[in-house]
């Protein structure tokens, strides 16, 4: 899925724009949380979590553990089944596991 930017959510039919989630670069991946309350997006060096109903950004973190100036796009993003963890995969061999509402993150390299 290539979402481009900005990301828009349309509930049901007929389609109307519920929210637009603005990004500074192309959005490479999008995932809705298991409880349907949040949407996670991955773009260049950043992953974000938004409240679907309000459109408010709840969480954001950089995917750039070594301060590299090269592009490091988040290519995959997913919530754990219980919604407690968010996992991202980016080029450069990085997998990040975070707790979007607890601000804990860990980097795993290939």
Give keywords.
four-stranded antiparallel β-sheet, single chain, 110 residues
pLDDT below 50 for ≥5 consecutive residues: which ranges? none
Rg over CA atoms: 14 Å
Strand content: over 45%
The protein's oligomeric status is: single chain
Main beta-sheet annotation:
4 strands, antiparallel
Question: What level of helicity do the residues show?
Answer: under 10%
Residue-averaged pLDDT, rounded?
Answer: 77
**What's the arrangement of strands in the largest beta sheet?**
3-4-5-6
Encode the helix/strand succession as letters.
EEEEEEEEEE
Task: Using the alpha-carbon principal axes, give the shape.
Answer: globular
Structural class: mainly beta
How far apart the termini lie comes to 24 Å
The total count of strands amounts to: 10
- Total number of helical segments? 0
Structural description of this entry:
With 110 residues, the chain is mainly β. It has no helices and ten strands. The strands form three sheets. The protein has a four-stranded antiparallel β-sheet with strand order 3-4-5-6, with no helix packed on it. It has a four-stranded antiparallel β-sheet with strand order 7-8-9-10, with no helix packed on it. It has a two-stranded antiparallel ribbon with strand order 1-2. The two termini are 24 Å apart. The mean pLDDT is 77.
The gist of it:
With 110 residues, this protein is mostly beta strands.
């Amino acid at each position: 899925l290539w979402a481009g930017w900005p990301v828009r959510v349309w509930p049901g039919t007929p389609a109307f724009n519920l929210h637009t989630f603005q990004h500074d670069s192309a959005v490479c991946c999008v995932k809705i949380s298991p409880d349907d309350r949040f949407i996670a997006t991955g773009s260049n060096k950043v992953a974000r979590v938004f409240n679907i109903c309000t459109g408010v950004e709840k969480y954001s973190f950089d995917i750039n553990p070594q301060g590299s100036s090269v592009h490091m796009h988040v290519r995959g993003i997913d919530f754990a089944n219980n919604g407690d963890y968010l996992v991202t995969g980016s080029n450069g061999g990085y997998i990040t596991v975070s707790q979007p509402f607890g601000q804990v993150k860990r980097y795993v390299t290939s």
